[in-house]
Structures are given as C-alpha cells and as structure tokens.
C-alpha cells in the first residue's frame, strides 16, 4: 500500500470556464479561498502554499482554432498545458497538489501532470457524469465532458491530438489505462460512454449501486480495486444532489446525499493513499445567493473531509 504523509499542500487555483457554456466557474477557486480554506487546512495540521491564480489568458487566437465539436479547444488546451507543468513540478517538489477549479476540463491538465510524475496513479472520479466523450462523440462539444475520453488508452489507439488545436503537448503524453479508473456516483451517462465503460471494463459505481450496496460497500470496492496505487481524487460538486449543491452547471437529481458525499472523502483520507485531488464545477452564478453560499460551503467541507477531518 502507498502511504503518503504530507506536511505541505499547494493550492493550485485553476479558474477555467471555457470547458462549458456558463460564466462563473472561474470564480469558484476565489470563493473557496475567501471562504477560509487555508485556515481550515492549517487547523488540520497542513502547511499551505497559496499561490496566485494560474494565468490561463490567451490573447492571440485564430478562429480556425475552435472546431465546432470541441468548443474553445485552443483556450482549454493552453490552460491544460500550463496546469500540467505546474502540477508535475509541485509533485516533484514533494507537495500535495490540490487543484481548485474551474470547470472539469481542468482535469486534462491535472491528470497529465500527475501521470507524468506518477504513472501508476489510481483515479477516483466522483461525478454525475462519465466525462468519457471525445469531440467525435460529444453531443455538446463542451470539453468539460471529455477529460477522461481524451486521455483514455483505447484498444483501437489513443486519441490523435495532432488534429485538436491547442493540444500538441499531449501528442506523446501519458494515457490512462482502464484499470486505473473508478467511477463513483454516475447517473447521467451518454450512450457511447456507456458502451466504452462496458467494453473497456472500467469499474463504475452508479447511484443504483450506491442505493443497492450503500456508500460504505461502494467505497470499499472502489479502494480495493485501486489497492497498491497512489490515489488522485477528482470531485465534481454535481455528484452531490442539487438539494445540497444547487450552484453548479449540470445538475441532475438523485445524487449523493450530504453524508454520502462526506463519507467518500473521509474513507479516502483514511486509506492513507491520497496523493492529489481536485474539486470542480462550483458556479455561484447559477443559483441565488443562498444556493451559491451553500454550495461553496459544501465544497469547503468536502475538501476538509478528504484532507483528513474526522468526526472524532
């Protein structure tokens, strides 16, 4: 078993909004920081490196750099390249990278950096959606639904990044093997994604599985599947039921309850194998003030759960 004992954590604020159609996800990192995240984590014993927001601006772009079915791909690729380099560097410096999104397209960068530094990493993807599309299968063209699809090592060949403007840095980049990935909380999966999950043999726990087995058994099975690997947790706030997380862009009813959502983080922290994490898709512009504050507070509490806070 990998046991990671960190003292230092690095906040990587990744204010990405171009992977989806709504304004507001770029304010998520700032609101989490202003909500007192650094203080919460120092109270848990962490020493925090809090650097400025990563600068994802790209001022010169050709219109041809945005294919219709990969919206804003040049901007997303540019940001992903920056984030990948920073994440890789922080890991090699011995820090725990905590990426604060931004929409879920930030995972293209965070996973690339993580896999460069630790190719054997196991990925726990907590999300209502599978994010396993590629431009050729996506119904929307929004790149926050593609991070796993683009990075997955398919039997018929990895994705050809030479045809995707802004993604040259991934032409010879790392790929995810299907056995490295476990889904938790799926409930809105596209037809092609469903086929690929089955054909690739990806371990996937839907909300039906959570109802059937209970979140305790689901997480036990998930951790057992990834045993022996350092873990990366990618936590999309829309995995939680909209009753508790209304300020997000792709709400789907019937998600994780408040306590189930916390249990996911608590049990991963207890495993001793968590080595990196991201939390994404907090968007205060998509709810009223009360809903926005509730979602930000939930994000803060979930982070403290997977970073080691326990009831006793």
From TrEMBL:
Kinase keyword on record: no
Enzyme class: hydrolase
Reaction equation(s) it catalyzes: L-arginine + H2O = urea + L-ornithine
Annotated binding of Mn(2+), by residue: 104, 127, 129, 131, 236, 238
One of the Pfam families matching this protein, by short name: Arginase
Cofactor annotation comment: Binds 2 manganese ions per subunit.
GO biological process: arginine metabolic process; urea cycle
Alphabetically ordered keywords of this record: Arginine metabolism, Hydrolase, Manganese, Metal-binding
Cofactor: Mn(2+)
GO cellular component annotations of the record: cytosol; nucleus
Keyword Manganese applies: yes
A molecular function (GO) term: manganese ion binding
InterPro entries in UniProt: Arginase, Ureohydrolase, Ureohydrolase_dom_sf, Ureohydrolase_Mn_BS
Biological or metabolic pathway of the protein: Nitrogen metabolism; urea cycle; L-ornithine and urea from L-arginine: step 1/1
Domain of life: Eukaryota
PROSITE patterns in alphabetical order: ARGINASE_1, ARGINASE_2
EC number: 3.5.3.1
Family: Belongs to the arginase family.
Protein name (Swiss-Prot/TrEMBL): Arginase
Species: Fragilariopsis cylindrus CCMP1102
């Amino acid at each position: 078993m990998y046991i990671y004992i960190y003292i230092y954590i690095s906040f990587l604020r990744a204010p990405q909004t171009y992977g989806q159609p709504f304004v507001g996800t770029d304010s998520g990192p700032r609101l989490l920081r202003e909500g007192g995240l650094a203080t919460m984590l120092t109270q848990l014993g962490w020493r925090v490196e809090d650097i400025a927001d990563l600068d994802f601006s790209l001022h010169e772009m050709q219109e041809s750099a945005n294919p219709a079915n990969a919206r804003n791909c040049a901007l997303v690729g540019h940001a992903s390249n920056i984030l990948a380099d920073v994440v890789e560097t922080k890991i090699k410096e011995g820090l725990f990278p905590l990426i604060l999104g931004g929409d879920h397209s930030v995972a293209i960068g965070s996973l690339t950096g993580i896999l460069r530094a630790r190719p054997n990493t196991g990925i726990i993807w907590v999300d209502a959606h599978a994010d396993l599309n590629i431009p050729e299968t996506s119904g929307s063209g929004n790149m926050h639904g593609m991070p796993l699809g683009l990075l997955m090592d398919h039997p018929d060949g990895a994705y050809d990044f030479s045809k995707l403007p802004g993604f040259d840095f991934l032409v010879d980049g790392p790929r995810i093997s299907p056995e490295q990935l476990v889904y938790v909380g799926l409930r809105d999966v596209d037809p092609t994604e469903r086929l690929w999950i089955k054909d690739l043999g990806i371990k996937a726990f839907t909300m039906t599985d959570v109802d059937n087995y209970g979140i305790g058994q689901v997480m036990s099975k998930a951790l057992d599947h990834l045993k022996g690997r350092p873990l990366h947790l990618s936590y999309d706030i829309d995995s939680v039921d909209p009753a508790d997380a209304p300020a997000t862009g792709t709400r789907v009813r019937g998600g994780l309850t408040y306590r189930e959502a916390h249990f996911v983080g608590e049990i991963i922290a207890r495993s001793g194998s968590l080595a990196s994490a991201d939390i994404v898709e907090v968007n205060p512009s998509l709810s009223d003030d009360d809903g926005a504050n509730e979602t930000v507070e939930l994000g803060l509490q979930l982070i403290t759960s997977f970073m080691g806070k326990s009831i006793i």
